[in-house]
Records
---
Amino acid sequence: LDLSNCSLNSVPPGLAEATAAIVLDLTENPLTTLPNGSFLGFIHLQSLAVPLTLECPGGRDAWQDVTVDRSSRLCQGQRNPCNTSVELAWPCPENSVCAPDGPGLTQCLCDSPFHGYKCLREGTFPLLLFGGILGIATVSLSLLLWGTQRRKAKTP
């Protein structure tokens, strides 16, 4: 994705939809900062060129190789932050596993069959029980209202 020399003052909002990008060029733009969530979901990004005034997103540790030339900074080889010897700032809860979510970003995914808040619920959602109770409550309330309100209806 070549966005070089596009007179961008900030990261375009549509960039969030380009998470499948492997190479991204933002050089020759008057960018002053890269907001923290700009590259959320960019797990396939392997080469990013930014103006010299900006650092690589996630810092030097998020990339295998950072090279600087006269007008740009090239960040290559995105590292998996889950495979480092440095302990994560927010370790994943029990029953979950760390997964990369962009340069220097991580997410915790629940192991199967766990789900829900902090991966504490086991099994699947009780869809039949939920649907049955909801259906019975709806029919009961409808019959009750029909029975109590029909006498107030005007007869022709």
---
Amino acid sequence: VRSVDGSFKDATSEAIRHWVNNLDSSYHLAGAPVGPHPCPAMSVIGKETRKQAMEKWGGKPDVLVACVGSGSNALGLFHEFVRDEDVRLIGVEAAGVGLESGKHSATLATGEVGVYQGAMSYLLQDEEGQIIGPHSVAVGLEYPGVSPELSFLKDIGRAEFYTVTDQEAIDAYRRVSQLEGIIPAMEASHAIAFLEKLCPTLPDGARVVVSCSGRGDKDAEMVLEHI
């Protein structure tokens, strides 16, 4: 195991760099859908969701909601349901301190198409194509690009994408911790926060699945600083 100083994008860059220099002896398999096959096809989250929905409800979910950084949370859940056009797929990006501030990670909401780490997708970039550093209170969402597959789902209108600010995610983190006794990861808190806007628009009895990925113990100190 080789550690890298920085965030996910730095680790991915170093892994790709090693891979292309050692093609005969290494293989690059990212834990996110920004690399080659088999991610996200190998994910079991969507398959488990379909199975449990059938057992609990006798049918598919109506809406799936997941946070979006590089895209692993969202595609892990969505991939099983992409061809079920009666199931809404909703991804929630990090608006940081506001889209107008420039301090955010909302790639699909504000980015432009470009090439990064060997793939074409939406990117946070300036007029000269230079990468703009992302920001989010959730470190796992701080990625300047996004999955090419999510980019495609946006382009064809199959998936919907919205944004949630740092403060909205922190509020959701606190709310779920207090009401459910579950400490969600700050990344997943973005998806949970969007329910405040989504649920009032849904018909009674709508079946909604939210990807609550990861534990929020790692975020507790940061949340206490903000409150």
